[in-house]
Amino acid sequence: MLLAVLSACHWGTPRNPDYLPHCSPGWCLRLRASFLLSVLPLLDLLPVTLPPGAGPGPIGLEVLAGGVAAVAWISHCLALWALAHSPHGLFRGPLTLALAAFLPAPALVLTLLWHCQRGTLLPPLLPGPLSRLCLLILQLAALLAYGLGWAIPGQSREPWAQEPLLSQGEEPEVAEDGESWLSRFSYAWLTPLLARGARGELRQPQDTCRLPHKLRPIYLAHAFQAHWQEGARLWRALYKTFGQHYLALGLLKLVGTMLGFSGPLLLSFLVGFLEEGQEPLSNGLLYALGLAGGAVLGAVLQNQYGYEVRKVTLQARGAVLTILYRKALQLGPRRPPAGEALNLLGTDSERLLNFAGSFHEAWGLPLQLAITLYLLHQQVGVAFVGGLILALLLVPVNKVIATRIMASNQEMLQHKDARVKLITELLSGIRVIKFFGWEQALGARVEACRARELGRLWVIKYLDAACVYLWAALPVVISIVIFITYVLLGHQLTATKVFTALALVRMLILPLNNFPWVINGLLEAKVSLDRIQRFLDLPSHNPQAYYSPDPPTEPSTVLELHEALFSWDPVGSSQETFISHLEVKKGALVGIVGKVGCGKSSLLAAIAGELHRLSGRVAVWGLSKGFGLATQEPWIQFATIRDNILFGKTFDAQLYKEVLEACALGDDLRILPAGDQTEVGERGVTLSGGQRARIALARAIYQEKELYLLDDPLAAVDADVANHLLHRCILGVLSHTTRLLCTHRIEYLEKANVVLLLEAGRLVRAGPPSEILPLVQAVTKTWAEDGQEADSATGQSVGNLEKTKEGLEGEENTCGRLLQEESKKEGAVALHVYQAYWRAVGRGLALAILLSLLLMQATRNAADWWLSHWISQLKADKNSSQEASGPTSPGSTGLLSAQLLLFSPGSLYTSVFPLPKAAPNGSSDVRFYLTVYATIAGINSLCTLLRAVLFAAGTLQAAATLHRRLLHRVLLAPVTFFDSTPTGRILNRFSSDVACADDSLPFMLNILLANAAGLLGLLAVLGAGLPWLLLLLPLLSILYDRVQRRYRASSRELRRLSSLTLSPLYAHLADTLAGLPVLRAAGATCRFEEENQRLLELNQRCQFAAGAATQWLDIRLQLMGAAVVSAIAAIALVQHQRGLADPAGTRLADPGECGVPGCGAGVPAGTAKCLRWGDLPRAAWREVGHRGPHRLWQVFPVVGALPAAGTQFGASAAGRCGHQPAGAD
User: Which residue, 781, 814, 833, sits at the end of a domain?
Assistant: First the structure.
């Protein structure tokens, strides 16, 4: 059976893409031997029909053994075939599999010795035994041949695990696809990634494993697009694409929930076995094995459920982000601000995907509640009604809290949108702001928006504190009510009932407290869904509907407009542009003139499809080829000058040289440090206005279009450069094309074929220049005044040399690289990061939080100790009454306490099956014990409330301090910092990273502190009450440390890389929105969408790897917990057999807390980055002795996350939806 199981684990081994069709001789020999060994056991069954005595055992056992052997070898043969055609085929394959193949050898040798002792070869020879002996010899020979096949060496290449990973540009492995079920359950396929992390080789996103096929953005885009159409509901398309698989995971959730209650039931049987002492030992062993098996199976199912839900979430995320970007490419004239679009990409998409973790909890928690109530009724009867009524009062309270938090969340998102929008505008005009010294004034406006945002966050945090208080205090209050009611009904409390009721009350509070937060998470997802849906419902740019499907009526006409009415607003409320009739011939130069604001740029935008066409007809010849568009505000990418000009087109040296000459860029490139390989800042901030205009014009010319729309490209240059551009470019290189030139310099339109005169958005005259130009009122003699804001071809070069050297000094290296890749810290998070957050909270407030936390845990331990003392007195009185009535059996006293066994991972808390009642005890002062217990519980409740309030105040103080410091340092940073840093990267700090400091970090820190205090209290309790359990701690600590070290080394870097890959997504979306008209005119939308998919795939790779590493840790921690369960059950059986006494102090061990710590926290990467960016250097004129540009890049590398010590919180009941309070008890 072991051979069959191990072999089946390798059936899904992925093939080697470069494998040879013929296996090596060793593999061939092993395959043939395995096939023979699968046939021989079947042939060995034939002699069974002969007279008795043919075999060493009963016939039924012989048939069973032969059948099992045949199945095992068939399974092994299939595994060998899969391994031979995989990378394992280059060597011997897994050693464990080969060793398992030799497991039948001892049995075969013993059978051969049996035949020799029986004298099978001595006369008289019997056909049955003789034939079986021959088959046995053949099996031994085949097994020997198998060994020879394994001994034959493979090729000279060593196993891939021994090679340097990702050397010589190799691609990393594909995650999960083709792996066996055992590899999937244990995440063995993650071993190469974790090995790279342990060696410190996870330095860039490409070092992570490649995504499985069904998680790749290209696959997700095609799958989602099959169910998506314009105007459709987003949730419906998501359901049709991923809904069936997601709903099927509900079965996994259901089985896991049921297994969560099977543990207590098995524990009740085991406790009954220990207390009664009348059942055979085999029953106790079955209970213990069932308990261990259920814990393992439950751990695997819960882990797989969390992993599969995470995969569905990533699938939906990939689809949503893809459709959001695709919609951004199709937006019409009505476009949202870049800050709002970035919030949709970051915050709203994440909130929407919280639905995946909340939906199954929405029905799972009520089911868990119903089962818990039933089991509580089995324990204490109708006494549970009093506690249930009190618990039900929690529902409306939580409903009110959830409603308030949802409303506050909506208002906070609006304030956040306003803040990010204001910061976006601030960054876009940072040069002007610094020139005029407006940093303080605009910083005050941002702080005002932040104050309104923090006001809503204040409400949310203190409501969270109320939930933390209810979470911690309500179980104790409900327990007291149940115990008092139970005693008043005339029943006697016993140890089993007290601790069972306590555990069940905790299980009761979990769904009652979490359910409103699950609903709140669903409502938040609904709010974000509505925001995304409104964005998707915005009018789209539809060229098929905008332009006439028929070409112009005249073959020589390139452009024709007839009775065309355009507007920037879809209802025509803004200024309209009306063209009664216009025809533009091929190769014509058309000038467009008019007063400022008369609609010249609007006419070009209307031709390019950037306005709403309210009526009329627009026909363009060769529409599919696009336009050459040079806008009035040049759009420049954060790239090299050559890349800006090529714009994705193949480099043509001759054409490129002609374009540079036509646009007078030669002198400018010669003074740059790397020529056309010099990187320019975002929006071309390191260039002058004239340089930006000429590079944008060069980009349009290099695309080689038939129709060019030139919106005043001569405005930013002086007369000499304008004359050069007119003759060398517009009348030179573009002479064979159709050109529409909008300009105020009417002197350059004398050679135009047609001049259009616009007034108030109407085409009033059209004709030759001699007729139209005299009608235009313009300054004709003072063009030199315009030269004050322009540059000449030579003067600009000389003047720009000084400007360029000043702007690029220190930022550009010898290769002309301005944009620096966003770096990240490596290794553990530095101590100063924690110190910075400590200072942000405030030293006094932080110490108060820690003190209240310790007081909370101390009073809780005191309450547990008092309960144990109370139950000890009850048991002592019971034993006294039993001794007075007569002797007792050894098995009925000195048993292992039931509460010792009340432990299992997750929700396997305690025995829930009705146990034998204790004898009545009239000597116990129930009122006294309950009064003391209630007093201690009340003090614990006050400490819990104090801790929750102080923690909320501390996190709010930290959030305000971090943002203030970040904003202050960014505003005082030198201008060169903004030249070399993309706006998307800065917005990432102020958007998602600030959100981490506001929300994610407090949530995780709350869990960390609560579990750290709980762990300290548990160790103290174990040391006092169950000292023998401490013997397991060294082994568990070693295992836990090894697992954690391997996990942390990779998870820390993966979290950093996840945050690192978000900034390019933000920057790419902002860049796309800024240059959307140019993208669509040049037909580059497909290329930009492919770039977005590439950036998204890198981020998804990091997100997937980080989630898989978390599940890798989770399954190991849960299996360690299952091992502890098994160990306690085994020790219980041993103590039962030896009749060891149970010390009363063992009742101090709370059964629900004896597991391996499964919760933890870490500093999110975004928060650490906010801390690091708080150290940005100030501008030189702001701070004497500031750090120079060479130190600039040392102050904002991405700082990663401390991974969680475990993962239970990641799969919590509410799935971290909304602001679920951490368990403070």
Answer: 781
Residue 734 has pLDDT above 70, yes or no: yes
Burial 831-868 (b: 16+ CB within 10 A, else e): eebeebbeebbbeebbebbeebbebbbbbbbbbbbbbb
pLDDT at 1214 > cutoff 60: no
CATH number for the domain harbouring residue 593? 3.40.50.300
Does residue 953 belong to any structural domain of this protein? no
Hey, what amino acid is at 628?
Answer: G
Q: Are 811 and 742 in contact (CB under 8 A)?
A: no
Contacts of 213 (CB under 8 A, 6+ apart): 177, 219
Cis previous bond, 539, omega within 30: no
What residues does 589 pair with on adjacent strands? 739
| CA 528 from centre of chain | 17
For residue 568, is it within any domain? yes
Helix axes 495-536, 439-488, angle to 10 degrees: 150
- Residue-number span of the structural domain to which 601 is assigned: 545-781
Among 963, 968, 971, residue whose Cα is nearest residue 997: 963
Task: Check if the beta carbon of residue 770 is closer than 8 Å to that of residue 591.
Answer: no
Last residue of a domain, one of 781, 814, 840: 781
Distance linking the first and last C-alpha atoms of the chain: 46
Number of domains in the chain: 2
Least confident of 680-689, 775-784, 857-866, 1097-1106: 775-784
Question: Residue range 616-620: average pLDDT?
Answer: 91
> Which residues in 95-116 are b (16+ Cβ under 10 Å) and which e?
eebbebbeebeeeeeebbeebe
Mean pLDDT for 1015-1024 is: 75
Give CA–CA dist 762/99, Å, rounded.
Answer: 89
Instruction: Confirm whether 112 is domain-assigned.
Output: yes
Reduced to 3 states (helix: H, G, I; strand: E, B; else coil), residue 887 is coil
pLDDT at position 590 = 92
Select from 905, 903, 1165, 1157 the least CA-distant residue to 1044: 1157
The rounded Cα 621 to chain-centroid distance in angstroms is 47
Structure tokens at 718: 């002086």
Q: Does 691 fall in a domain? A: yes
C-alpha radius of gyration, the chain, whole number: 38
Q: Backbone phi, then psi, for 334, in 5-degree steps?
A: -85, 100
**pTM tops 0.90, yes or no:** no
Closest Cα partner for 709 from 743, 746, 747? 743
Tell me if 708 sits within 8 A of 737, measured CB to CB. Answer: yes
Q: Is the dihedral of CA 205, 206, 212, 217 positive or negative?
A: positive
Residue with tokens 């493979």: 154
The Cα–Cα gap between 1063 and 671 comes to 32
Q: Provide mean pLDDT across the span 532-545.
A: 86
Predicted pLDDT of residue 654 = 92
- Burial (CB < 10 A; 0-12, 13-18, 19+), residue 124, is exposed
Q: Is 731 exposed, middle or buried (0-12, 13-18, 19+ CB in 10 A)?
A: middle
Q: How many percent of the chain have pLDDT more than 90? A: 8
